[in-house]
Design brief:
This protein has a single domain (3-243), classed as 3-Layer(aba) Sandwich (Rossmann fold), CATH 3.40.50. The protein is globular and about 45 Å long. The chain contains 7 helices and 12 strands. With 248 residues, the chain is an alpha/beta fold.
Length: 248
Amino acid sequence: MARVTVHADDVELDRPTMVEGLPGVGLVGKLAADQLVEVFDMTYYASLDCDGLPQISVYEGGSRDVRPPVRLYADAERDLLVLQSDVPVSASAASDFAACVTEWLADNDATPIYMSGLPHQKEADQIPSLYGVATGTGGERLDEQGIDAPSERGAISGPTGALLYEASARGVDAVGLVVQSDPQFPDPEAARILIEHGVAPLTGAEVNTTDLVERAEDISEQKEQLAQRMQEAEPDESSQAQPLRMFQ
């Protein structure tokens, strides 16, 4: 049975914003989500037990505690939630997972920010471009913060695409951020752009991203194994944006 179990009943939230961090192209969403959890020292808030998610336990160095692979963290001061995932969501489970998450978001008046990488081979000094899409009234938030609309027609696949589809189908307000990112390796620079030009203005939270760039080499090494898994996964398991050009 699909359910979200809250473990921190003392954390009070009022119509929070949820930032999603599923693994995908460049691991941009995961890198950004992990940064938020670490910088704000967020509280482990809830576990997700949605159909199709692997029943495994994860643990951290120096701790005996085990936790599920997909979790929600909360920051009451900023009215912020972060969905952190240590595993990819399989293509066969994406629809059930999206329905599980979206139902909980709707029941708790939470507005999601979904994040996806757009594979792009950029020059060394090129700043990744950021675009925003939305469902419901989410587009108004993008307009207020001056976040550009996509420059071409495209599609967001994988579990993040399923989440946006479910939000649209249910009439749930949602924002989708798309950033140009390295198609093969973890991209901390793209994650920084996501945070500074997308998440921060949309949530009103000031996020220190200095160490995200300074630790780029360490981050790349730590995430290399997960990135390799994402490359080897079925295409629909990896969230990514891609252009849809006619007459190719």
